[in-house]
UniProtKB/TrEMBL annotation, chain A:
It comes from Anaerostipes rhamnosivorans. CDD domains: ETF_alpha. PANTHER family: ELECTRON TRANSFER FLAVOPROTEIN ALPHA, ELECTRON TRANSFER FLAVOPROTEIN SUBUNIT ALPHA, MITOCHONDRIAL. The keyword Electron transport applies. This is Electron transfer flavoprotein, alpha subunit.
Automatic annotation (TrEMBL), chain B:
Pfam families: ETF (PF01012). PANTHER family: ELECTRON TRANSFER FLAVOPROTEIN BETA-SUBUNIT (PTHR21294), PROTEIN FIXA (PTHR21294:SF17). One of its GO terms (molecular function) is electron transfer activity. It comes from the Bacteria. Residues 22-214 form the Electron transfer flavoprotein alpha/beta-subunit N-terminal domain. This is Electron transfer flavoprotein small subunit. CDD domains: ETF_beta. InterPro entries: ETF_a/b_N, ETF_b, ETF_beta_N, Rossmann-like_a/b/a_fold.
Length: 345, 265
């Protein structure tokens, strides 16, 4: 195979439009795709270019059509039996074929366990740059290039990355970070079907079994309120208190990694650098010290409330409201106060 | 089986602090460690070697001369050989150039299985593993949390997704990226540490050693498609209202009232 090279004086003007590489699981479009379309629309408008979304799959044309209600100018439905479920080889090859044919200027990919698998591989095959886990995307007013800002060093440092000489400019974006595109009754764009050239032998890693996680799905990214517990809970039973408060508020339950490692709660509840990134309206951190890796996943929340008995805990450095006290007193008081007022959120 | 593990030396980012005056990272005195996922990868490689007698484990790191320490640690854990890919020409590399360089080094080795960590805790991109696989033209499985060999040339791996696990069969040569859950690293033994410094060698490969496998257009800062335009530390949003020395009821009442005033709840 001819290997790609970079920085070879390619004709940048041959590339235009903003693309989102969409994601479906079992034929259902994933929320991150709608989030990327929201962001992609803004970028495309600033550049006065079109927004396209590409969705791979098989026999999911109706699901693909739904994307026309979210402000895309073009939906590319990449249809093939071998794209029914995810494979690195199948997806990479199909996306690369379409990108090479249509030449988008910007390509956004969800930083999910699928996107982070194929994103780097697609970028390497195309011979272009990829910025990981972006939290902010902007168009540089001077040269029209995309400025991609991302955390590194466990959230200690932010860096703005550019890809000056290669196209497309590619970014992965974490789920939950961008605002969703708004659903519209009317359809504005067009659906185009693309059939990639794929054969069975192209797919070298074979899926032999899927094991679903049994636990109830936690949906931290969409939660408006999250009540999170940390090591200060002292035991798995401590989460009972967290659940009670969460129930009163109609909130989801989050956790620090310490509790996940202690086996008090399932990993799907973990917030942070190696867990889920969240930005709810209200984040209540109970018995969480505020390690940088935890903050990296929640410090964009609109209102942060911290309950901790240590006045020096770093979480107090970033919260809007903090209560220095024992969570075993404060949480029951909060439950009592909220139920008494019958506040509905 | 010939197993190659990629290990990066990283600053222990849990120890990194911000200088409150300049708002920059304090890197002095921060210990350097083997990237945690890579250490799990080394352990998984050693376990694979124990299962398949006659196997060898070679650990490869790209970095400055100090990365020798990380490689010695890997040798002390039980790896057979170590290669340090080190040259000023490789500096400033993004993930494209890093993976091109490491792939060029691996091309000079025999390999059936390549194990990288999923993600390095400093650069944090999780891109180098899949890009090495792409440069070598071999299949990959990322986010691997369990690993088994079947027959001579087949791996059965368990891959993690947000809501599921997949069992995947892949023939060698292939690359996997390891989650920390894949294996709990063993400690180096006194004997191992002794061997690592007295008996075993770390081969150092510079640009000249890779001349026939690397394309010079794809290395270092010049061969990197991305550029860091600027970096900065996040402005902490600053502490808000902290309530001390109040009873739980008083504190809660005060905060709930404030939230209601602002129509947050
Ligand atoms: C590579 C890497 C990735 C990581 N990723 C993540 C991640 O994604 N998410 C994450 O959360 N962590 C992550 N961590 C771990 C992180 O560094 C911290 O170890 C972890 O967040 C600590 O959890 P904690 O705050 O619950 O526990 P601690 O730091 O032990 O804090 C417990 C807190 O509870 C308080 N407390 C104790 N008793 C009470 C009481 N009765 N009432 C009130 N307060 C009380 C204490 O004052 C203390 O502040 C990561 C670490 C590494 C190295
Ligand atoms: C603030 C900042 C932001 C950056 N952002 C980007 C970006 O968005 N895109 C980009 O392309 N580059 C970026 N870079 C450059 C990138 O960090 C370097 O290319 C780095 O060498 C590799 O990336 P990583 O640390 O993210 O490794 P990862 O891709 O996270 O590493 C995955 C695995 O690959 C192996 N590996 C990685 N590096 C080595 C090595 N040197 N030796 C041996 N094995 C290794 C390890 O097994 C590791 O576990 C950034 C650098 C900085 C300082």
């Amino acid at each position: 195979m001819e290997r790609a090279k970079v920085n070879q004086g390619i004709d940048l003007s041959a590339y235009e439009d903003v693309w989102v590489l969409g994601e479906q699981r079992e034929g259902k479009i994933q929320p991150v795709t709608i989030e990327l379309m929201g962001e992609g629309r803004k970028l495309a408008d600033q550049l006065k270019k079109k927004l396209a979304v590409v969705i791979p799959g098989y026999q999911i044309e109706q699901e693909a059509e739904k994307l026309l209600h979210y402000g895309a100018d073009v939906v590319y439905y990449m249809s093939h039996p071998l794209l029914k479920s995810f494979s690195t080889d199948g997806y990479t090859s199909a996306f690369v074929q379409l990108i090479q044919e249509k030449k988008p200027e910007i390509v956004l990919v969800g930083a999910t366990s699928i996107g982070r698998d194929i994103g780097p591989r697609i970028a390497a095959r195309l011979g272009t740059g990829l910025t990981a886990d972006c939290t902010k995307l902007e168009i540089d007013k001077e040269d029209g290039k995309i400025l991609q800002t991302r955390p590194a060093f466990g959230g200690n440092l932010m860096a703005t990355i550019v890809c000056p000489k290669n196209r497309p400019q590619m970014s992965t974006v974490r789920p939950g970070v961008m605002e969703k595109a708004i659903h519209q009754e009317t359809v504005c764009g067009t659906l185009k079907t693309f059939i990639p050239d794929l054969s069975e032998n192209d797919i070298r890693a074979k899926l032999i079994e899927i094991i679903k996680k049994e636990k109830k799905q936690v949906n931290l990214t969409d939660a408006r309120i999250i009540v999170s517990g940390g090591r200060g809970l002292k035991s798995a039973e401590g989460f009972e208190l967290i659940r009670q408060l969460a129930d009163v508020l109609g909130a989801e339950v989050g956790s620090s990694r310490a509790c996940v490692e202690a086996g008090w709660i399932d990993a799907s509840h973990q917030v942070g650098q190696t867990g889920t990134t969240v930005r709810p309206d209200i984040y209540i951190a109970c018995g969480i010290s505020g390690a940088i890796q935890h903050l990296a996943g929640m410090n964009e929340s609109k209102y942060i409330i911290a309950i901790n008995k240590d006045p020096e805990a770093p979480i107090f450095g970033i919260c809007d409201y903090g209560i220095v006290g024992d969570l075993n007193d404060v949480i029951p008081a909060m439950i009592a106060k909220l139920t008494q007022k019958e506040v509905s959120i | 089986m010939k197993i190659v593990v990629c290990a990066k030396q990283v600053p222990d980012t849990t120890e990194v602090k911000l200088d409150p005056k300049t708002n920059t990272l304090i890197r002095d005195g921060v210990p350097s460690i083997i990237n945690p996922d890579d250490k799990a990868g080394i352990e998984a490689a050693l376990q694979l070697k124990e299962k398949c007698p006659g196997s060898t484990v070679t650990v490869v790191s790209m970095g400055p001369p100090q990365a020798d320490v990380a490689l010695r640690e890997a040798l002390a854990m039980g790896c057979d050989d170590a290669v340090l890919v080190s040259d000023r020409a490789f500096g400033g590399a993004d993930t494209w150039a890093t993976s091109s360089t490491i792939a060029a080094a691996i091309k000079k080795l025999d390999y059936d299985v390549i194990i990288t960590g999923r993600q390095a805790i400093d650069g944090d991109t999780a891109q180098v593993g899949p890009q090495i696989a792409e440069h070598l033209g071999i299949p990959q499985v990322s986010y691997v949390e369990a690993l088994n060999v079947e027959g001579e040339d087949t791996l059965i791996v368990q891959r993690q997704f947000e809501d599921r696990h997949q069992i995947i069969e892949v023939k060698t040569p292939c690359l996997i990226t390891a989650l920390a859950e894949l294996a709990t690293p063993r400690y180096m033994t006194v004997h191992g540490a002794f061997d690592a410094y007295r008996e075993k060698e770390v081969s150092v490969w510079g640009l000249a050693d890779l001349e026939d496998t690397v394309d010079q257009a794809n290395i270092g800062l010049k061969g990197s498609p991305t550029r860091v335009k600027k970096s900065f530390t996040k402005q902490a949003k600053g502490a808000g209202t902290i309530l001390k020395d109040l009873s739980a009821d008083e504190a809660v009442a005060s905060i709930v009232d404030k939230l209601q005033e602002k129509h947050i709840i």
